[in-house]
């Protein structure tokens, strides 16, 4: 039987230990499953229209809005979900710290959803018709009454932030124009149909071309998905 030195013996034991740790680590990595609620797999959606052909807003502005503000919100939401997943394992984490992150989750989610609805509204022919117009006339009496209120709400938010939202409330079964101060202030059970972004980044360069009283020309409901 071959004799081995003390150094060789220690080296053999350490190597074996490292092998066990590596094996356990790999097994843990393979068995650990991230909950779907913390998946952090959100991907930005491309603009549903040709930005170079959009009336009323420059291509440069709409691309900046999409690539920086919207895409930035998507990335931030993924990052928040990753941190929520990590924090869920910390049993002694103070509730107020977790609450701060949940607030960020709400803000980023609202930003992503409303931006996607906003971009989906753009690129139409600027004329209201079909089912959308009939629905508006049913609930507001006339298209002009609806448009006047929609503009008024937008002007009320023209200080630099917020959203004007035409939404159907699935609980009350009613159609309303809603005033939203930020990404989080939306009536429960409301489904956005037409969304107007009143944050400065949406119009600050464009506003010198088109006066604020004509802002509704940026997005007008049609029979094709309120676009």
Summed over residues and divided by their number, the pLDDT gives a mean of: 82
Content of β-strand: 5-15%
Can you count the beta strands?
A: 3
CATH-level-2 architecture: 3-Layer(bab) Sandwich
What's the total helix number?
5
CATH homologous superfamily caption: Iron/manganese superoxide dismutase, C-terminal domain
Strand arrangement in the largest pleated sheet:
2-1-3
CATH fold assignment = minor pseudopilin epsh fold
| Cα distance spanning the termini | 84 Å
Radius of gyration: 26 Å
Task: Tell me the count of domains.
Answer: 1
**Helix/strand order, N-terminal first:** HHHHHEEE
CATH top level class name: Alpha Beta
Can you offer a commentary on this structure?
The protein is globular, with a radius of gyration of 26 Å. It is 47% helix and 10% strand. By secondary structure, the chain is mainly α. It has a 3-stranded antiparallel beta sheet with strand order 2-1-3. It has a single domain, classed as minor pseudopilin epsh fold (3-Layer(bab) Sandwich). The C terminus is likely disordered. It is built from 5 helices and 3 strands, in the order αααααβββ. The N and C termini lie far apart (84 Å).
């Amino acid at each position: 039987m071959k004799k081995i030195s003390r150094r060789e013996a220690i080296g053999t034991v350490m190597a074996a230990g490292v092998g066990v740790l590596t094996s356990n680590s790999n097994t843990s990595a393979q068995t650990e499953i991230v909950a779907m609620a913390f998946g952090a797999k959100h991907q930005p959606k491309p603009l549903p229209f040709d930005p170079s052909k959009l009336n009323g807003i420059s291509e440069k502005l709409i691309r900046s809005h999409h690539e920086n503000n919207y895409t930035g919100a998507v990335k931030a939401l993924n990052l928040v979900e990753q941190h929520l997943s990590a924090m869920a394992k910390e049993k002694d984490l103070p509730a107020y710290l977790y609450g701060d992150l949940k607030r960020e989750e709400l803000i980023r989610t609202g930003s992503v959803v409303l931006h996607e609805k906003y971009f989906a509204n753009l690129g139409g022919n600027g004329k209201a018709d079909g089912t959308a117009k009939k629905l508006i006339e049913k609930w507001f009496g006339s298209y002009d009454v609806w448009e006047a209120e929609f503009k008024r709400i937008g002007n009320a938010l023209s200080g630099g932030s917020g959203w004007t939202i035409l939404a159907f409330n699935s609980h009350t079964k009613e159609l309303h124009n809603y005033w939203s101060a930020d990404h989080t202030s939306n009536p429960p059970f409301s489904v956005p149909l037409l969304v107007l972004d009143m944050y400065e980044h949406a119009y600050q360069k464009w506003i010198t071309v088109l006066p604020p009283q004509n802002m509704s020309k940026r997005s007008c409901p049609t029979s094709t998905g309120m676009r």
